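Box S1 | Example of a co-folding query
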Amino acid sequence: MTGSAACCGAARDPDQPSAVAPDATIPTGPGVGSAGMVLLPGGAFIMGTDRTDGYPADGEGPAREVTLSPFWIDTTTVSNENFSTFADATGWVTVAERLGTSFVFAAYLPANFPPTRAVSDAPWWREVQGADWRHPEGPQSTIADRMDHPAVHLTWRDARAYANWAGKRLPTEAEWEYAARGGLVQQRYPWGDQREPAGEHRMNVWQGTFPTRDTGADGYVGTAPVDAYPPNGYGLYNTTGNVWEWCADWFDPVWHRDGPRVDPTGPPSTGRKVMRGGSHLCHASYCYRYRVDARSSNTPDSSAGNIGFRCVRSADTAN
Ligand SMILES: [Cu+2]
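Box S1 (continued) | Returned holo structure for copper (II) ion
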Protein backbone atom coordinates (compact mmCIF):
# COMPACT_ATOMS: atom_id res chain seq x y z
CA MET A 1 0.00 0.00 0.00
CA THR A 2 1.35 3.41 -0.89
CA GLY A 3 1.44 6.17 1.69
CA SER A 4 -1.20 8.11 -0.19
CA ALA A 5 -3.54 5.15 -0.06
CA ALA A 6 -3.04 4.38 3.61
CA CYS A 7 -5.86 6.61 4.78
CA CYS A 8 -8.36 4.66 2.77
CA GLY A 9 -8.22 1.40 4.65
CA ALA A 10 -5.86 -0.80 6.57
CA ALA A 11 -5.04 -4.28 5.31
CA ARG A 12 -4.71 -7.49 7.24
CA ASP A 13 -1.30 -9.05 7.60
CA PRO A 14 -1.14 -11.32 4.54
CA ASP A 15 0.70 -13.92 6.64
CA GLN A 16 -2.22 -14.22 9.03
CA PRO A 17 -3.73 -17.68 8.73
CA SER A 18 -6.87 -17.39 6.68
CA ALA A 19 -10.13 -18.03 8.44
CA VAL A 20 -12.04 -17.63 5.24
CA ALA A 21 -14.79 -20.12 4.61
CA PRO A 22 -14.32 -22.17 1.46
CA ASP A 23 -16.21 -20.92 -1.57
CA ALA A 24 -18.43 -24.00 -1.45
CA THR A 25 -20.09 -22.63 1.66
CA ILE A 26 -21.32 -19.46 -0.02
CA PRO A 27 -25.05 -19.39 0.61
CA THR A 28 -27.62 -19.20 -2.11
CA GLY A 29 -31.04 -17.69 -1.59
CA PRO A 30 -34.29 -17.21 -3.41
CA GLY A 31 -33.27 -13.69 -4.35
CA VAL A 32 -34.67 -10.57 -2.81
CA GLY A 33 -36.24 -9.17 -5.97
CA SER A 34 -35.62 -5.76 -7.46
CA ALA A 35 -36.92 -3.66 -4.56
CA GLY A 36 -34.49 -0.85 -3.94
CA MET A 37 -32.85 -1.27 -7.33
CA VAL A 38 -32.97 0.75 -10.54
CA LEU A 39 -32.49 -0.53 -14.09
CA LEU A 40 -29.77 1.34 -15.94
CA PRO A 41 -29.73 1.23 -19.73
CA GLY A 42 -25.99 0.86 -20.19
CA GLY A 43 -24.46 1.85 -23.51
CA ALA A 44 -21.31 3.89 -24.03
CA PHE A 45 -19.85 6.24 -21.44
CA ILE A 46 -16.51 7.88 -20.78
CA MET A 47 -14.73 6.06 -17.95
CA GLY A 48 -11.74 7.45 -16.06
CA THR A 49 -10.16 10.88 -16.34
CA ASP A 50 -7.19 12.56 -17.98
CA ARG A 51 -7.06 15.17 -15.22
CA THR A 52 -3.85 14.98 -13.23
CA ASP A 53 -4.92 16.78 -10.04
CA GLY A 54 -6.00 13.47 -8.46
CA TYR A 55 -3.86 10.34 -8.27
CA PRO A 56 -2.74 9.34 -11.78
CA ALA A 57 -0.60 6.56 -10.27
CA ASP A 58 -3.81 4.85 -9.13
CA GLY A 59 -4.77 4.40 -12.79
CA GLU A 60 -7.51 7.04 -12.85
CA GLY A 61 -6.78 7.50 -16.55
CA PRO A 62 -6.96 7.40 -19.39
CA ALA A 63 -10.42 8.71 -20.14
CA ARG A 64 -11.80 6.09 -22.51
CA GLU A 65 -15.10 5.01 -24.00
CA VAL A 66 -16.50 1.87 -22.36
CA THR A 67 -19.74 0.16 -23.36
CA LEU A 68 -21.96 -1.69 -20.89
CA SER A 69 -24.95 -3.99 -21.09
CA PRO A 70 -28.02 -2.90 -19.11
CA PHE A 71 -28.07 -3.86 -15.43
CA TRP A 72 -29.93 -3.33 -12.17
CA ILE A 73 -28.15 -1.67 -9.26
CA ASP A 74 -29.02 -1.06 -5.61
CA THR A 75 -29.87 2.59 -5.01
CA THR A 76 -28.04 2.43 -1.67
CA THR A 77 -25.23 0.48 -0.11
CA VAL A 78 -26.27 -2.60 1.87
CA SER A 79 -27.47 -1.43 5.28
CA ASN A 80 -27.07 -3.03 8.68
CA GLU A 81 -30.73 -3.96 8.44
CA ASN A 82 -30.15 -5.68 5.09
CA PHE A 83 -27.10 -7.52 6.35
CA SER A 84 -28.91 -8.62 9.50
CA THR A 85 -31.60 -10.23 7.35
CA PHE A 86 -28.90 -12.13 5.46
CA ALA A 87 -27.02 -13.18 8.60
CA ASP A 88 -30.23 -14.35 10.29
CA ALA A 89 -31.28 -16.33 7.21
CA THR A 90 -27.94 -18.02 6.53
CA GLY A 91 -25.94 -17.99 9.75
CA TRP A 92 -23.08 -16.42 7.78
CA VAL A 93 -20.11 -15.63 10.00
CA THR A 94 -18.00 -12.81 8.58
CA VAL A 95 -14.23 -12.91 8.22
CA ALA A 96 -13.84 -10.30 11.00
CA GLU A 97 -15.95 -12.47 13.30
CA ARG A 98 -13.89 -15.57 12.43
CA LEU A 99 -10.54 -13.84 12.91
CA GLY A 100 -11.71 -11.80 15.90
CA THR A 101 -10.42 -8.42 14.73
CA SER A 102 -11.09 -5.60 12.30
CA PHE A 103 -9.73 -2.11 11.67
CA VAL A 104 -11.32 0.79 13.54
CA PHE A 105 -10.55 4.47 13.10
CA ALA A 106 -8.71 5.45 16.30
CA ALA A 107 -10.66 8.67 16.94
CA TYR A 108 -13.88 6.63 17.29
CA LEU A 109 -12.55 4.57 20.19
CA PRO A 110 -13.43 5.68 23.73
CA ALA A 111 -10.61 7.43 25.60
CA ASN A 112 -10.34 4.56 28.09
CA PHE A 113 -10.21 1.86 25.39
CA PRO A 114 -7.53 -0.80 26.01
CA PRO A 115 -4.32 -0.44 23.97
CA THR A 116 -4.59 -1.62 20.37
CA ARG A 117 -2.15 -2.36 17.60
CA ALA A 118 -1.70 0.58 15.22
CA VAL A 119 -1.07 0.17 11.51
CA SER A 120 2.52 1.20 10.88
CA ASP A 121 2.05 3.59 7.96
CA ALA A 122 -1.45 4.67 9.02
CA PRO A 123 -1.46 5.02 12.83
CA TRP A 124 -5.05 6.31 12.82
CA TRP A 125 -6.14 2.73 12.11
CA ARG A 126 -6.27 0.31 15.05
CA GLU A 127 -6.70 -3.43 14.81
CA VAL A 128 -9.41 -3.92 17.43
CA GLN A 129 -10.36 -7.23 19.07
CA GLY A 130 -14.05 -7.88 18.75
CA ALA A 131 -14.70 -5.24 16.08
CA ASP A 132 -17.10 -6.56 13.46
CA TRP A 133 -20.22 -5.45 11.60
CA ARG A 134 -22.39 -5.75 14.73
CA HIS A 135 -19.78 -3.92 16.85
CA PRO A 136 -18.24 -1.25 14.60
CA GLU A 137 -16.01 0.27 17.31
CA GLY A 138 -15.37 -2.93 19.25
CA PRO A 139 -17.28 -5.05 21.77
CA GLN A 140 -18.76 -2.11 23.69
CA SER A 141 -20.37 -0.68 20.55
CA THR A 142 -23.64 -1.53 18.81
CA ILE A 143 -25.47 -0.93 15.54
CA ALA A 144 -28.85 -0.63 17.29
CA ASP A 145 -29.14 3.06 16.41
CA ARG A 146 -27.49 2.59 13.00
CA MET A 147 -29.68 0.00 11.28
CA ASP A 148 -30.09 2.37 8.32
CA HIS A 149 -26.34 2.98 8.06
CA PRO A 150 -24.07 0.98 5.72
CA ALA A 151 -22.95 -2.41 6.99
CA VAL A 152 -19.16 -2.16 7.49
CA HIS A 153 -16.27 -4.37 8.59
CA LEU A 154 -17.19 -6.70 5.72
CA THR A 155 -14.52 -8.20 3.52
CA TRP A 156 -14.88 -8.65 -0.21
CA ARG A 157 -15.68 -12.31 0.46
CA ASP A 158 -18.48 -11.38 2.87
CA ALA A 159 -19.88 -8.94 0.32
CA ARG A 160 -19.83 -11.59 -2.38
CA ALA A 161 -21.63 -14.05 -0.10
CA TYR A 162 -24.39 -11.54 0.59
CA ALA A 163 -24.74 -10.75 -3.11
CA ASN A 164 -24.99 -14.41 -4.02
CA TRP A 165 -27.64 -15.01 -1.40
CA ALA A 166 -29.61 -12.01 -2.66
CA GLY A 167 -29.54 -13.28 -6.24
CA LYS A 168 -27.21 -10.45 -7.15
CA ARG A 169 -23.49 -9.88 -7.67
CA LEU A 170 -20.90 -7.20 -6.97
CA PRO A 171 -20.62 -4.54 -9.69
CA THR A 172 -17.75 -4.54 -12.10
CA GLU A 173 -15.63 -1.45 -11.68
CA ALA A 174 -16.97 -0.12 -14.99
CA GLU A 175 -20.58 -0.66 -13.88
CA TRP A 176 -19.86 1.08 -10.61
CA GLU A 177 -18.34 4.15 -12.27
CA TYR A 178 -21.04 4.41 -14.93
CA ALA A 179 -23.70 4.25 -12.21
CA ALA A 180 -21.89 6.64 -9.88
CA ARG A 181 -21.62 9.30 -12.59
CA GLY A 182 -25.41 9.40 -12.79
CA GLY A 183 -25.44 10.29 -16.48
CA LEU A 184 -23.02 13.23 -16.23
CA VAL A 185 -19.97 13.30 -18.50
CA GLN A 186 -16.48 13.77 -17.08
CA GLN A 187 -17.58 15.50 -13.88
CA ARG A 188 -15.77 14.93 -10.59
CA TYR A 189 -18.81 14.26 -8.45
CA PRO A 190 -22.17 12.51 -8.93
CA TRP A 191 -23.85 15.93 -9.10
CA GLY A 192 -21.26 17.95 -11.05
CA ASP A 193 -17.82 19.47 -10.71
CA GLN A 194 -18.23 21.50 -7.50
CA ARG A 195 -17.71 19.62 -4.25
CA GLU A 196 -20.07 21.89 -2.33
CA PRO A 197 -22.31 23.64 -4.87
CA ALA A 198 -23.62 26.91 -3.40
CA GLY A 199 -21.96 25.89 -0.14
CA GLU A 200 -24.17 22.81 0.24
CA HIS A 201 -22.60 19.56 1.42
CA ARG A 202 -23.66 16.69 -0.86
CA MET A 203 -21.73 13.77 0.64
CA ASN A 204 -20.24 12.47 3.87
CA VAL A 205 -16.50 13.13 3.91
CA TRP A 206 -14.05 14.61 6.43
CA GLN A 207 -14.05 18.30 7.37
CA GLY A 208 -11.50 19.73 9.72
CA THR A 209 -8.06 18.43 10.58
CA PHE A 210 -7.24 14.83 9.75
CA PRO A 211 -6.94 12.56 11.65
CA THR A 212 -7.83 14.32 14.89
CA ARG A 213 -11.00 16.30 14.29
CA ASP A 214 -13.89 15.87 11.86
CA THR A 215 -16.08 18.93 12.43
CA GLY A 216 -19.03 17.10 10.93
CA ALA A 217 -19.98 20.16 8.86
CA ASP A 218 -21.63 17.81 6.36
CA GLY A 219 -23.94 16.59 9.11
CA TYR A 220 -22.07 13.43 10.08
CA VAL A 221 -19.03 12.25 12.01
CA GLY A 222 -18.65 8.59 11.11
CA THR A 223 -21.10 6.93 8.76
CA ALA A 224 -24.38 8.45 7.58
CA PRO A 225 -27.66 6.68 6.73
CA VAL A 226 -27.45 4.97 3.35
CA ASP A 227 -30.02 7.37 1.89
CA ALA A 228 -28.59 10.61 3.31
CA TYR A 229 -28.23 13.53 0.86
CA PRO A 230 -30.00 13.84 -2.51
CA PRO A 231 -29.44 10.99 -5.01
CA ASN A 232 -27.59 11.34 -8.32
CA GLY A 233 -29.25 11.52 -11.73
CA TYR A 234 -29.81 7.75 -11.72
CA GLY A 235 -31.43 7.79 -8.28
CA LEU A 236 -28.37 6.40 -6.49
CA TYR A 237 -27.37 7.58 -3.01
CA ASN A 238 -23.89 8.15 -1.61
CA THR A 239 -21.85 6.76 -4.49
CA THR A 240 -19.10 9.06 -3.21
CA GLY A 241 -18.24 9.50 0.45
CA ASN A 242 -19.71 7.56 3.39
CA VAL A 243 -18.13 4.13 2.70
CA TRP A 244 -15.83 2.62 0.11
CA GLU A 245 -17.67 0.11 -2.07
CA TRP A 246 -16.22 -3.24 -3.07
CA CYS A 247 -16.24 -4.07 -6.78
CA ALA A 248 -15.90 -7.46 -8.45
CA ASP A 249 -12.65 -6.66 -10.28
CA TRP A 250 -9.08 -7.24 -9.21
CA PHE A 251 -7.15 -3.96 -8.99
CA ASP A 252 -4.34 -3.03 -11.32
CA PRO A 253 -3.13 0.54 -11.97
CA VAL A 254 -2.44 0.06 -15.69
CA TRP A 255 -4.14 -3.08 -17.00
CA HIS A 256 -7.23 -1.23 -18.24
CA ARG A 257 -5.22 1.03 -20.55
CA ASP A 258 -5.24 -1.68 -23.17
CA GLY A 259 -7.98 -3.83 -21.66
CA PRO A 260 -11.40 -4.69 -23.09
CA ARG A 261 -13.82 -1.79 -23.59
CA VAL A 262 -17.06 -3.76 -23.73
CA ASP A 263 -18.41 -5.08 -20.40
CA PRO A 264 -14.88 -5.19 -18.94
CA THR A 265 -14.41 -7.45 -15.92
CA GLY A 266 -10.88 -6.47 -14.94
CA PRO A 267 -7.51 -8.18 -14.93
CA PRO A 268 -6.58 -11.66 -13.70
CA SER A 269 -5.89 -11.92 -9.97
CA THR A 270 -3.60 -9.26 -8.53
CA GLY A 271 -4.29 -10.05 -4.87
CA ARG A 272 -6.22 -6.83 -4.31
CA LYS A 273 -9.85 -6.03 -5.08
CA VAL A 274 -11.08 -2.67 -6.35
CA MET A 275 -12.87 -0.29 -3.97
CA ARG A 276 -14.54 2.86 -5.27
CA GLY A 277 -16.18 6.06 -4.04
CA GLY A 278 -14.10 7.12 -1.05
CA SER A 279 -15.38 7.29 2.50
CA HIS A 280 -16.29 9.54 5.40
CA LEU A 281 -12.59 9.57 6.28
CA CYS A 282 -11.35 11.09 3.02
CA HIS A 283 -10.13 14.69 3.02
CA ALA A 284 -8.54 16.64 0.18
CA SER A 285 -5.42 17.27 2.24
CA TYR A 286 -4.29 13.64 2.19
CA CYS A 287 -6.82 11.53 0.30
CA TYR A 288 -8.69 13.28 -2.48
CA ARG A 289 -10.51 10.09 -3.44
CA TYR A 290 -14.14 11.06 -2.95
CA ARG A 291 -14.45 11.50 -6.73
CA VAL A 292 -16.27 9.26 -9.21
CA ASP A 293 -13.01 8.65 -11.10
CA ALA A 294 -10.83 7.85 -8.06
CA ARG A 295 -9.75 4.28 -7.31
CA SER A 296 -8.46 2.28 -4.39
CA SER A 297 -8.08 -1.35 -3.38
CA ASN A 298 -7.64 -3.76 -0.53
CA THR A 299 -7.07 -7.47 -0.06
CA PRO A 300 -10.24 -9.60 -0.23
CA ASP A 301 -9.80 -10.67 3.42
CA SER A 302 -9.48 -7.13 4.82
CA SER A 303 -12.23 -5.18 6.52
CA ALA A 304 -12.57 -1.79 8.16
CA GLY A 305 -15.15 0.62 9.49
CA ASN A 306 -15.24 2.60 6.24
CA ILE A 307 -15.75 -0.20 3.69
CA GLY A 308 -19.16 -1.41 2.51
CA PHE A 309 -20.78 -2.42 -0.77
CA ARG A 310 -23.84 -2.35 -3.01
CA CYS A 311 -25.01 -5.03 -5.45
CA VAL A 312 -26.05 -5.28 -9.07
CA ARG A 313 -27.84 -7.81 -11.25
CA SER A 314 -27.55 -8.27 -15.00
CA ALA A 315 -30.74 -7.15 -16.76
CA ASP A 316 -31.06 -10.52 -18.49
CA THR A 317 -31.03 -12.45 -15.19
CA ALA A 318 -34.38 -13.99 -14.27
CA ASN A 319 -34.62 -13.12 -10.58
CU1 LIG B 1 -9.43 7.98 1.46
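Residues 7-8, 278-279, 281-282, 287, 289 surround copper (II) ion (CB under 6 Å). The two ends are 39 Å apart (CA to CA).
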